[in-house]
Write a structure and sequence with these properties.
With 413 residues, this protein is mainly alpha-helical. The chain is built from 22 helices and no strands. Helix 5 runs antiparallel to helix 21 and helix 18 runs antiparallel to helix 20. The longest helix is centred in the middle third of the chain and has 32 residues.
Length: 413
Amino acid sequence: MPILPRVVAYPESAQVLRRQVVASVLLSTRWAVLAILPYQLVKHFGAPDFYSIVATMATPAMMLLSVFWGGLYRRTATRRYVWVYWLVGVLPIAGIALSYSPTAALGWLLVGSVASAGMVPMSGDIMRACYPPGVRGRVMSVLMFASIIANGLAAYGIGKWLDFDSQAFRLYLPLAVVIQLGGVALLASIGRLPLFLEREQSLVADESKTSLLRRFARMWSVLAEDRDFRRFEVFFMLYGAGWMICWALLPLLVYHRLNLEYDDFNESTQVAFQATMLVAILIAGRLVDRLGPVRLAALAFGWLALYPIALMLAGGVWSLTFATVIYAMGMASVNVIWTLGPIMLARRAGDASRYLSVHGSMVGVRAIIFQPLGWLLYSTTGSFVVPLALATVLLVLGCVGMWALDRNIRARR
């Protein structure tokens, strides 16, 4: 990968990035195989709509455990930590392949989702320890670019395979678990590199004696201590609330209004999303280095306010694809900001995993509140317009608030 040394400038960082790129590709299979599951529950298993809502909630709601995973990470050697993640968060996905009822399939998904936040603190620590600040946006772009290609190809293949054989998930889910095993092994190898070993040396004895409950309290205290970060989280919450409503309603909108086949569903959502992201993520990586995460977040939230409007108007494969393209163009920036925003706002380099853990936990808060709210508004009104209109308003408010925060930060410099 000759391009990687030019991205990071330092040979040691390029060595980390090579391993991290391959690991990201292998681990991205998790999202490719699980993205279609909420639609499978209603289409293949014949589950009630509420099962789909719970399935879309599973991963983001379990992000509420980010503080737990952050505390565990800060007191555990990296090589041991990644294997705990695989056993808790990856292996249970194979249980879905053995399921013949929607309840069993959903149950295994919920078990595997417990570790949804497991990679958050480690990703932030690798970024902080192994790459200089000026290139982190480009590094994120490279990592996401590789993951997007893998995810898009996998999503396309899965959609075609399911249309040919609706039982195909009994084969590709165990296969995905094995593939992710390779990704975890690569991350463990990064933990042995000299550039990262300073992190292992920082695991002092006092850290291991601190109770997890006390660690949780310390992590959450950052919201009280850092006003900029607190405001960042408030405005990110407004964006996230709108996002959660759209995410929860998408499978139901496709099933009840459009009634698409598996390949049409995947191609107009997952494949279109990944294809657009291939271009948009490279631009986003450079923009975040130039504009900063807060200003770019404001612009992205404003653009994403168009997405729920496009979903309201979707009437077929092509209009849904168009909505997905709008969505992907905004999410390219959000995905880069999601990790880099808390890292750049952290007052001390060693606090990166702490800030990311709190940031990740807030995803769980909004999933638990706003996904059921979106479904409740839809089920009581019988219309997708009401919840999607609310999502639009929330995204606009997030945009306005984040722009004001950026102006405030710049005025103090």
